[in-house]
Amino acid sequence: MKAIRTILIVMIGFVALTFTAGPAFSAAAKPLEFACSPQIYEAFGPELISSFTEKTGIPVNLVVEASPQAIKSVENEFADLAASTARLYSQHQRYGYFEKVFAKDPMVVFTNKNNKTKSLSKTEIQKIFSGEVNNWKEVGGGDNVIVTIVPDKNAGAYQNFKSLFMEGRQIQYDFMSQKSTMVEEAAKRFPYVISFITRAAVANEPELKMLRVDDVSPDDSKYPYYLTFSFVSKGNPAGAAAEFINYVTKGEGKEMLQKKKIIMLTDD
Known about the structure:
By secondary structure, the chain is of the alpha/beta class. The protein has helices spanning 2-18, 38-56, 67-75, 90-94, 122-129, 156-166, 183-189, 199-202, 239-249, 252-259; strands at residues 32-36, 60-64, 81-84, 97-112, 119-120, 147-150, 175-176, 193-198, 208-210, 212-213, 226-234, 263-264. Residues 14-29 have low confidence and may be disordered.
């Protein structure tokens, strides 16, 4: 059993390394320098970024990085604007940083579509990600090794999952990916992987299956586990940053996100 787990982890590592390339946009005069969480970029998609440029004529230089790094890019003035799944600390607010929470999306636990398991309790999820349970048969599935794969510890997805689900328990894992969205690629190829991410990142992936939690679907309004999306800038946003925020929270960008079932928290 241990040998099988080791082989799976090595294979998953190879898959993850294959998908490290991020999107790239050409530099142009006076672009928006934008640092974006991988999960929020999955929600936006390249189509939202390109439609903003087509609408406004403002090019976007995009860097996709974990939420804390995106905020750090704003702090160091490498980026005009960040989109983050992690909230600012109070010290940022004291120093005049701007934060606008503009949307929320369910935090989901998911696996491969060929995994027979459909639902887990919150307690079972805690036991799996704390290392107490390591075979699917212990939670009503087949006799197969559970392989846990998680985003980087600094990623907003990791920190939010720990806060929402683990209730003080430490997360144990078999493999950690460099980006939160890379966990999808592993789960597509290995049926007994389990991981977590926002709904928008996996909702349109036919090879993946979102698990019900305590028999409540992530698509149900009663589902209680959500991640928030925030814009962050150093001081009040101006120029291209302000235009992009308006586009996402009031313009065509908002409509695009609503079509993806992102729950918008801003009014027109």
